[in-house]
Write a structure and sequence with these properties.
By secondary structure, this protein is mainly β. The protein is built from 3 helices and 18 strands. Helix 1 runs antiparallel to helix 2.
């Protein structure tokens, strides 16, 4: 500011010496004073904006800003103009064993096997936009390679409730755990961990309502609750009034210096299974039979994520460590051999599973990852009528080890190679190879922390 003032004086002084009168000199001085006043006012405004920005930054930690569901604006969205994105993905899978065989001890739970050979995969069409000053809408459609369209997400969420509250209603991925809310193109590996595949059939999706509360603290803290129809596995879709499932979850996180950040969470899911049938279940007589189960299902979970990037810059080097643990208890009645003996008696079992994985970006655009999965089928409490029919304990621990390498030419494309040694089926070790591409077209919002 003062250099500019000096320059003005230097330029105008010769003119004043030769031709200016007192009035000209006074006008020049007034003009210089106006410049000084204008610059000082502008500097004061900028300082005030800086103080406000620093205050807002303290109220919301940097590591959690991108993941807050209450924020209405996503990348590519503007008021009332929808952001449209298309995700194209495909895989090549090569296995030594039949992928349709479920994990030992988990035949009564979900099993969606991965595809062998060349597979188009699931293309994903996403649309999101502001509806009005109060609401925002999001829809994500899964384009099945065999034909047809499925609705992954179709929900409305509030944007102006205030007090850290956010309300969502429609179809959405539940907020339990860490991985559950992420769409497939954002996974760090080709497939989900074993515990997600068996406990949630890859992901828990619901039709219902969700309420989140973000605490006004320096440390990121949120609480959430959901009521749903119960359509997502392990629930059974229902044609009744009221809710068929409920979820509670809590997350906390913070930064540690400029290079480290973390997030931890706890969650609880309750639902009911009605006449859930499983085929080919081994019995004590060495047969594969069809069983049917009805009862309550309760799952508790823990999750943790830690991220490191030197100075907060993820462009060249970064590391992410994450893990989750789920424990499920189911109790009710089980009908053994529905096509033959058809014997019904009580049944209860507690099963668990966890995974731990790390992904290291060792240079720009290149990452390597390692993951370990483990399941525990538990020991079932079988009613007296079926004690001689149903296996209560399999005496086997399913595991899997996975390594991956991926290359991202840009933020819109990724190529990945993955190798896994799957020991989830007793005496059926399977070496699995995957090749994958994931391409993103159009505007796509930032992913969660």
């Amino acid at each position: 500011m003062f250099k500019y003032t000096a320059l003005c004086v230097a330029l105008f002084a010769p003119l004043c010496a030769h031709a200016a009168n007192d009035e000209d000199l006074r006008a020049i001085r007034d003009e210089i004073q106006q410049l000084k006043d204008s610059y000082e006012q502008r500097i004061a405004q900028l300082e005030q904006r800086l103080q406000q920005a620093e205050s807002d930054s303290k109220a919301t930690p940097a590591s959690t800003t991108a993941q807050q569901p209450g924020r209405a604006t996503a990348s590519g969205e503007s008021a009332f103009n929808p952001a449209v994105s298309l995700i194209l993905s495909g895989t090549y899978g090569e296995f030594q064993r039949d992928p349709a065989i479920p994990a030992t001890g988990f035949t009564m739970l979900a099993h969606t096997p991965p595809e062998q050979g060349f597979n188009l995969g699931e293309s994903e069409l996403g649309i999101s936009a502001s509806i009005d000053p109060q609401f925002r809408g999001v829809a994500t459609f899964a384009l099945d390679p065999a034909g047809g369209i499925g609705v992954e997400n179709a929900f409305v969420q509030t944007t102006a409730l205030g007090s850290g509250l956010n309300f969502k209603f429609g179809r959405y991925f539940s907020g339990l755990g860490y991985l559950n809310e992420q769409h497939a193109h954002a996974w760090d590996f080709v497939d989900q961990p074993l515990v997600y595949r068996t406990f949630w059939d890859n992901q828990l999706g619901e039709d219902g309502v969700q309420l989140r509360w973000l605490a006004p603290t320096d440390t990121f803290m949120e609480l959430g609750a959901e009521l749903g129809r119960g359509r997502g596995f392990p629930g059974s879709d229902r044609q009744k009034n009221g809710a068929g499932s409920g979820v509670l979850f809590a997350h906390a996180g913070d930064d540690i210096g400029a290079s480290n950040s973390w997030r931890a969470g706890i969650s609880l899911h309750e639902t009911r299974r009605e006449n859930a049938q499983a085929d080919g279940v081994p019995d004590l007589n060495g047969n594969g039979v069809s069983n049917r189960f009805s009862g309550d299902s309760r799952t508790a979970g823990l999750d943790f994520v830690w991220k490191y990037a030197p100075g907060g810059n993820t462009a060249n080097t970064s590391f992410k460590l994450q893990g989750e643990y789920f424990r499920r208890k189911e109790s009710g009645s089980l009908t053994y051999d529905t096509a033959g003996a058809n014997i019904t008696d009580s049944y209860a079992v507690t099963q668990s599973g966890w995974y731990l994985q790390g992904v290291y970006q060792f240079m720009s655009r290149w990452r390597a990852g390692l993951r370990y999965d483990r399941l525990d089928s538990g020991t079932a409490q079988v009613g007296a009528l079926n004690a001689a029919n149903i296996i209560s304990s399999y005496g086997y621990t399913p595991t899997r080890s996975t390594v991956m390498l991926d290359y991202s030419p840009s933020e819109f494309s990724r190529l990945r190679m993955q190798f896994a040694q799957d020991k989830s089926r007793q005496e059926l070790t399977d070496n699995q190879l995957f090749l994958q591409y994931v391409m993103s077209l159009g505007a796509h919002g930032a992913h969660q922390f």
